Amino acid sequence: MYIEKARVDSIQTLVPNTYLLKVFSPLIASKIKPGQFCNIKVSETDYPLLRRPFSICEVDGNYLHFMFDVHGEGTRILSSKIIGDEIDILGPLGKGFTYDGVYKTAIIIAGGIGAAPFPYLVESLPKDKEVHCYIGGRSKNNIIDYGMKNISVSTDDGSLGYKGTIVELFKQEYEKFKKDSVSIFACGPNPILKALQEFTIAKNIDCQISTECAMACGFGICQGCPIDNADGDGYYLVCKDGPVFDARMVRL
Ligand SMILES: Cc1cc2nc3c(=O)[nH]c(=O)nc-3n(C[C@H](O)[C@H](O)[C@H](O)COP(=O)(O)OP(=O)(O)OC[C@H]3O[C@@H](n4cnc5c(N)ncnc54)[C@H](O)[C@@H]3O)c2cc1C
Ligand code: FES
């Protein structure tokens, strides 16, 4: 784990309210794996006090990319960065995706900004794996297909693709993958992950989910990011034991 002063190289709007930030951060870029995250100090002052966690979106040589939505003050400040600004980044943090197992097709399932960790995963998958990406959003303006391949789309309002959630669409299309061995990688709002978790456990499909919660330290000290284990008799820390978990391990 390192702290690096990362220089902003570019910042662009991908879709309304969603930004792609590229920073020069050679040390962390050389170490970070798909599904891990960084804890970013968004301002040079003490406000906001806590760092904000963001998944690694892409690694391009010495550069890191982060994809983020503006929710509150921290992400608003981050969205106002300009080329040449320096940002204090702590990482790599957490446990990422396991993707080198024996399976034929990697199925990516992303809801909204849940697309953030997948460009790097898609790029890192062994070349013998097929990839199919399921991307959901509220409407066509929220569909983030950056870095994705073989895409199926759903929107809540039906303005693009299937009308409904991305898990509903995947469940309808699952039969076409059934004859192959698949591994699912998912990130998105909790209701989406929960519906997927129920389906994949019932069908005995390998599924890893990238979870989210409020965080403080980001590396296992403050105990501020518990997630119940599947039996409900203990907990994991999202920052240290996750954020990526086998869907069978946790109670959402
Ligand atoms: C491991 C991990 C990885 C993450 N990766 C990403 C990423 O790649 N891209 C990204 O955009 N976000 C990501 N997040 C979420 C991100 O950290 C929060 O959006 C961010 O901390 C919000 O900071 P803020 O100061 O803007 O909002 P706050 O002031 O902290 O919150 C403002 C309001 O937004 C709500 N809010 C905060 N976070 C979310 C959220 N995730 N979804 C919906 N409402 C929210 C709060 O409840 C509050 O009402 C990740 C979170 C974790 C734990
Ligand atoms: S954020 Fe401190 S233990 Fe997880």
Can you describe this structure?
The protein is α/β, with parallel strands linked by helices and 252 residues long. The chain has two domains: 2-93, Beta Barrel (Elongation Factor Tu (Ef-tu), domain 3), CATH 2.40.30.10; 105-210, Nucleotide-binding domain of ferredoxin-NADP reductase (FNR) module (Rossmann fold). Helices cover 18% and strands 36% of the residues. The chain has six helices and 16 strands. It has a seven-stranded antiparallel β-sheet. Strands 11-10-9-8-12-13-16 form a seven-stranded mixed β-sheet, with helices on one face. A two-stranded antiparallel sheet has the order 14-15. Strand 1 and strand 2 form a beta hairpin. The mean pLDDT is 96. The protein binds flavin-adenine dinucleotide (FAD) and FE2/S2 (inorganic) cluster (FES). Flavin-adenine dinucleotide binds next to strand 4, strand 6 and helix 2.
H/E element string?
EEHEEEEHEEHEEEHEHEEEHE
Low-confidence stretches: none
Strand residue content: 35-45%
Assembly form of the protein? single chain
> Might you state the CATH topology name of the largest domain?
Rossmann fold
Radius of gyration: 18 Å
Tertiary shape: globular
Bound chemical compounds: flavin-adenine dinucleotide, FE2/S2 (inorganic) cluster
Q: CATH H level of the largest domain: which superfamily?
A: Nucleotide-binding domain of ferredoxin-NADP reductase (FNR) module
How widely separated are the two ends?
28 Å
